[in-house]
Design a protein that fits this description.
Helix content is 68%, strand content 7%. With 142 residues, it is mainly α. The chain folds into 2 domains: 104 residues, Arc Repressor Mutant, subunit A (Orthogonal Bundle), CATH 1.10.10; 36 residues. Strand 1 and strand 2 form a beta hairpin. Helix 3 crosses helix 4. The radius of gyration is 18 Å and the shape is globular.
Length: 142
Amino acid sequence: MRTLRTFRSVGQHQGRYALSGTKVGILQCLTSQDARVSALAHQLSVSVSVASRAVEGLESDGLVCRHSDQEDGRVSVISITPRGTADLAQRHYYIAERFASVLDDWAPANTGQVLVVLQQLNDRLDRLADVLESDAREAGRS
């Protein structure tokens, strides 16, 4: 829990890089593919209205743009803009640099070991998310 609180705090106190978790999550989702607001909401486990407000803010900042869905012209699809991609990369770089600065007194072997364990944890959490999503789909069919 302490680690989660620390990462949340870091995310909320980024100075000029401050952006809500939902907005950063949307940018992150859009790096792999364009998406409808409803799909973004589902991926981030937030309501469609929360995702929609976040997209509106990102759009006004020029970080995402909307275009008509090829399959259903009544629906908008959201894309990350080059400015959004650059902004997200800056955020990642800033956090990585700050993180590295607090680990500068660690032995390289310890840092490497932590990175391996964190990657393994990320992999397991991805598996857990897949299992929970599958459970939710199955429960919806019952």
